[in-house]
Amino acid sequence: MKNEDIWKKYDMEVDSNTKSEIKKEIIIKYISLVKIISGRLYNYYASNIEYEDLMSYGVIGLIDAIDKFDRTKNIKFETYASIRIRGSIIDQIRNLDWVPRSIRQKSKVLKDAYEVLDQKLGREPSNAEIAEYLGKTESEIKSMFDETSIFNVMSIEDDFKDNYKIQLKDETIDSSPEASAIKNDTLKELQLAIEKLSERDKIIINLYYYEGLTYKEIGEILKISESRVSQIHSKAIVKMRNQFK
Asked: Residues in domain RNA polymerase sigma-70 (predicted)?
């Protein structure tokens, strides 16, 4: 059955049992998408979680996507589901709270150093300048950015939820007109923060978040190492967080 046909059948079905069976068909049809996204994220979380767990979290996101997908909007289900699946996996991992305290501390040290130097220099500080400020080598700073990369990604989402009371990948927590206005303003600020990034940073942000590529795949495109992509990505996130400070 073609994708369009199965969705029409699902939307029109009124019998709950039959609708449930059609839903199972849709899940089976798109389970490969869960496998792809789980596989990509497993590259980063392998030392902390099993691939099967990521798959189960992803299936939760897929089911949620099926329940909330609006076919009247001009968006492919694959695109919408990918966001839901990835978000579900990261949310579940965040709930496990497995990030070591040392990683949290390193992230804060980098963020604070970046903020001080940014204000002092009036521009983005280099790794060498951050290293000098913290009394470390440039190699140590690169390693710190590499180690804190995933935590920085999760913490910027937490910043938005805690400080702006919104979830960027979903509906507002508060659906009032005031909350919607705040979300729209914040999204505009986020867009401006991205526009202030260098062209290379923008490319990496776009490839990682919008195209769903891994660091390895991005590195192959940009002809740089996977570790270097991780460092640039982490620094870009720190930079964006500083814009919202």
From this structure: 53-66, 214-240
> What's 209's DSSP letter?
I
How far, rounded to the nearest angstrom, does the alpha carbon of residue 220 sit from its chain's CA centroid?
20
pTM tops 0.70, yes or no? no
Residue pair 151/108 in contact (Cβ under 8 Å)? The answer is no
Q: Measured between alpha carbons, how far is residue 27 from residues 6, 78, 83 in Å?
A: 11, 12, 16
| Cα–chain center distance at 32 | 20
Say if residues 154 and 148 touch (Cβ distance below 8 Å): no
pLDDT by residue (tens digit) across 163-211? 444 444 444 444 566 666 766 776 777 778 788 888 888 898 888 777 7
Placement of tokens 């590195």 in the chain? 219
* Cα gap 86→35, rounded to integer Å: 11
For residues 244 and 101, what is the distance between their CA atoms, to the nearest angstrom?
A: 24
Cβ pair 25, 6 in contact under 8 A: yes
What is the rounded CA–CA span in Å between residue 26 and residue 59?
Answer: 12
Q: Which stretch of DSSP H or E encloses residue 238?
A: helix 226-244
Q: What is the three-class DSSP state of 126?
A: coil
CA distance 160 to 138: 30
Q: For the chain, which domains are there? A: 3-96 (1.10.1740.10), 101-244 (1.20.140)
